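Study this protein:
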Amino acid sequence: MDDLKLLIIGEEVSRYGSLRRSVEAAGVRQDVRFFGFVPDRTLACLYRLASVFAFPSLYEGFGLPPLEAMACGTPVVTSNVSSLPEVVGDAALLVDPYDVGALSDALARVLCDEGLRRQLVARGYARAGRFSWERSVRAIHDGYMRALGVTVPATAAEEAR
């Protein structure tokens, strides 16, 4: 595991100078890379190349990044708060985002346990397959129609359930 690097990606990374200073102070600058905005194609490549995707978010409206990582075949460790448990289901390891030890332990488990990795990847593919933009749009549309009192015909997928 000596060749592992931590990639920190996001447009807002530059706003957190204290994060860079903490990396420097810990003496791990050579093992951490900071990226700003990353185009979707590059992000998908990074997901596929990652050994694990860590997402210890404190709040998410939906939680798209863990779902994207799972769709790319990357095992996920994420927060047990907000919408994230509902989004990832049993396809990720969930941790308290305030507990550094729990996050560290979960990452080590994924990196060291090949059976767990394979299980999370398989579950992640299955979980990500349950979500689609088309299904989301249909659900929103149907919800608005019902709110307006319009009868919404069942789709073939709903009838199959």
User: Anything to note?
Assistant: Residues 39-130 form a domain with the Rossmann fold fold (CATH 3.40.50.2000). The chain has a mean pLDDT of 90. The longest strand covers residues 6-9.
